[in-house]
Design brief:
The protein has 1 helix and 24 strands. By secondary structure, the chain is mainly β.
Amino acid sequence: MAYIGKIPATGAFQKCDALSASATADYTLQVGSTNVVPESVNHMIVSLNGVIQQPTTSFTVSGSTLSFSSSLTSNDSIDFVMLLGNVLDIGTPSDATVTNAKLASDLISGETDIGGAIADADLFLLDDGAGGTLRKTAASRIATYIGDNTPVILVYRNLIQNISDNTETKVLLDTEVIDTDGTFASNKWTPAVAGTYWIHGSISYGLASNGDQADAFLYKNGSSPAGIATFNSHVFSSDTMSDYTATVSGIFVLDADDYIELYARGDASGQLSINPTGSGAIRTWMMGYKLIT
């Protein structure tokens, strides 16, 4: 809005401390007993013996030193020295008065620790990608937009489980290590969050003999899906009893109500068993997590 009356003056206008003339041409400019440096000789008004002096011709300035064109005497009178400052200087803006349009597009404030950890309440500036408008958003909202890799599970078998010959049998995973969303129950995982998941299963077989074969399967909704079959299927070739681990991995696109189970199958001359933990190691287990896509 327009001003009523005279428009306020802008600039850093200062009157220098009084100077006493003596037998020299050079004088130190001070304001409040502190040296000051004018913008240039043309940003000064100097009155000597009641006459305004001409810049450059009658006086010059270097740093905080005012130099007259010739030495003065004690009979001369330096009436005043005015510093105009930068006549385009608007001074220090009041709080919250500078609009976005007045800021450089690459402005970064150094008032905070650039190495500090990001907190949920921290704010980020974003370009809307269309009209060039800046928006601010909290770190927590960015995290929500990106998403995370939960739910996550890691479950394992803690007891021996016997399986029938040449029969696909569900592995009874009885111990949870990680179940971020409480979605593993009754030996199956129902993530309850639609998305793409990476899932891996590992089964350790024991009491195998020559020619026996062991496999691992991941079942989706009660059956083994196409393309997600056993990996590292093994045929035992030793003449002595031995152990072997079969593993299976797959990427699954799951709806909220889909579920995953780990299945074992042994083609053996007799009954096979699934090994539990041993020597402090988890030997039969399933793990999975949601992929960020």
